[in-house]
């Protein structure tokens, strides 16, 4: 395919008045030569003005505006950005849910049990902190394929460590409260105390860190897709679009600018949301 010269190269051949000039006929019929297209269009040129109007040919397509341009295959970039947003947000939200379930359960159990159980569980967390997680994710994706489910699990499995530490700290401060002693006195089981009493009372920090985890996961997915290890065609994501834009950056810079801009704005918005929730749920700030 010839290099892209301008963002309108794949746009409809008709002008704003709905008239197609003969010089543009080669783009209307991409599979034939310009002279063959001219011969075909000559059959409909009733007034001989070397142009086709809507009255002469009812099938003439209306002008199409590609507000953000097109990619290297002529696909509307705005449409692909909207479609890619579903994948990027889905990966961020679902992988965050995976990390939330693992981290909250692990941290709450370690904090409530204490003693040797706490020491063993948190040493495992410390060991996993020292591992190069992105390399592990790349290995997982390389071995098991770039299936979207594998991507959810792989990204979720590396984000739960900090959540576990946050929840453990909250549970340690809560487990000596009177409501926990009351639950023990009436014979409530340990799992019930953890999941029905302690975790609900630690929801503030959990919600805040969850909102900050979503943009982190989205950024990691974009990094993997940029390397060609994330979302694969026919699906797309903002990271995959940025990877495509990198290959045609000199001739079509708007592709990588649009995808990178959408990702940057979304990440900033989610981080601002997390900061706002942290300020709103912080008891010290509420007292002030």
Please provide a written account of the structure.
The protein contains 13 helices and 2 strands, in the order βααβααααααααααα. It has about 290 residues and is mostly helical. The chain has 2 domains: about 1-65, Recoverin, domain 1, CATH 1.10.238; about 75-280, MetI-like (MetI-like fold, Orthogonal Bundle). Helix 3 packs across helix 9 (about 190-200) and helix 8 (about 180-185) packs antiparallel against helix 9 (about 190-200). The radius of gyration is 28 Å and the shape is elongated. The termini are far apart. Residues about 1-10 have low confidence and may be disordered.
Briefly, what is this?
Residues 85-274 form the ABC transmembrane type-1 domain. The chain has 288 residues and is mainly α. The protein is built from 13 helices and 2 strands.
